[in-house]
Amino acid sequence: TCRQLNKFPIPPWRNWLLGHTGMGQSTEQGLQQVDALVARYRHGCLWWGLPWLPILRLFHPSTLRPLLSASAFVAPKDELFYSFLKPWLGEGLLLSHGQRWARHRRLLTPAFHGDVLRDYLGIFNQSTHVLLWGAAAVEAGGGPVGLEVLQPLSLLTLDTLQKCIFSHESHCQERPSEYIQAILELSSLVVRRQLQPLLHPWWLYSLSSDGRRFARACATVHAFTADVVQRRHRALARLGHRAWLDGHRGRSMDFIDLLLLTKDENGHTLSDEDIAAEADTFMFEG
């Protein structure tokens, strides 16, 4: 495999030990380095994160087309980065593959029907009004004319997703939410771990302060999701499908409701663990 990889052009290493680690960071200088790489290596190049971590970077459309056009059923996934997410997301649609991926994809498709998504427009508008009200309050209070939008937009997205997936009002745009803060922390920790190759092995990462924070945040997220799924499942079992559907008449069902009711061609439903993994996955992807 190494002999095949070495057929790709390799940019100059940062040094013999770190390889290309630390190059191409998310800064203006890092983006300029990546732009220079694309100009020099039109089709792609090989990076070494460490002497044992090859990273193949593809740039040209003709090089990328076979990968991007391949079915997700057979397309390769980033096993390294995705392994960092697995303790958090489990075997959801993002991380699964093969027959499991195909089955879950079929079961989740009805949840993204246009009529279902249209029912969520009111939720989108409600969450957006909260964001605009907050911005107006800052302006009225004599705050700075410039407004940093990344954090408010992230909270807007997570607030909306939590309503659509769990029917839960966290009010995270107005006050701190332990669950939302845990998701933001997990996202930050995963990216930071990716940039620190020495922390890629799980046994080392679990001993680090970041690893302990990751474990605590995972526990917070999993406890919230499991509680919602289990309570909803018990309610469905108590009421029965017909009464459950009648109770939702005139209002949209959330993502958890749709997954609880879905069945495959053999009449099998998703387990609570499957539903929790899909819910966690879509909160992350949001």
Automatic annotation (TrEMBL):
Signal peptide: none annotated. The keyword Iron applies. GO terms for molecular function: heme binding; iron ion binding; monooxygenase activity; oxidoreductase activity, acting on paired donors, with incorporation or reduction of molecular oxygen. Pfam families: p450. The keyword Hydrolase does not apply. Its cofactor is heme. InterPro entries: Cyt_P450, Cyt_P450_E_grp-II, Cyt_P450_sf, Cytochrome_P450_Monoox. Belongs to the cytochrome P450 family. This is CP4FN protein.
